[in-house]
Amino acid sequence: MPYLNLLSLVAGLGLGVISAAATGCAPECPGVTEDAYSECTSRAGLRYTVCGSDNYEFNDGSHYGDAGLASDYCYCGDAQLQCTDGRRASLCNFDPLDGTTALVYDDGSRAALDKGTAACLGFDDCTLETKNCSFNGWYLRCAGGDVRYVASTTQISSDEVDAVFACNPRVERSLPGGHCEDAIADCDVLSDCDASAACRGEGSSCASVVRCADHDDLTSCAADPACKWELY
Length: 232
What we know:
The protein folds into 3 domains: 6-75, no CATH class; 81-166, no CATH class; 178-231, no CATH class. It has 6 helices and 15 strands. The relative contact order is 0.12. A 5-stranded antiparallel beta sheet has the order 1-5-4-3-2. Strands 6-7-8-9 form a 4-stranded antiparallel beta sheet, with helices on one face. It has helices at 6-11, 67-75, 95-98, 113-121, 160-166, 218-222; strands at residues 22-23, 38-39, 47-50, 56-58, 62-64, 81-82, 88-93, 101-105, 110-111, 125-129, 139-143, 148-151, 156-157, 178-182, 227-231. The two termini are 25 Å apart. The protein is of the alpha+beta class.
């Protein structure tokens, strides 16, 4: 199924807090196959399909009868950041549509997601991160004094592992299975091999090979700059 067109998406933006979605569309969508769903970016693992006439059914049980509001929920979510100036804003990632991102305020004004979020929260800068994320998951690494991590769900944490948990879908209250893979070909590309368990050598030297397979869980893998977590 193709993604919603950009005109439908824009029609739903700038409307303030998105109204709650009703549930109950699923019985009208029998026989929906995996390839009939489109992946969202507002929450890792969230996706939707169209059932009936203009009925947008999400795999969390929510549904909308309006393309613009469905787009809001899929690419911006229903949670908002509280900015330091008192305004509220939505984190929007339209990458599947046109490769863009945005921070959208309640009054309809908008800025690029990274620079806009930094200004909203009073950081020097923010960087969009997708390492160790799956199913269109992402988060922002924001610096300026202390480093903070902002999840697509607007949760803010001082621990990157929390952001990695948030950018992967939960399966039965746990993360889906996976394994730790090398994110770099050679340890020498790291500025500090001591920061990586997979590249730490003897003394001040770097290891001759990257050893990401030594990590057996997402937490340790995500914390290692030489590694990335891949789903099975």
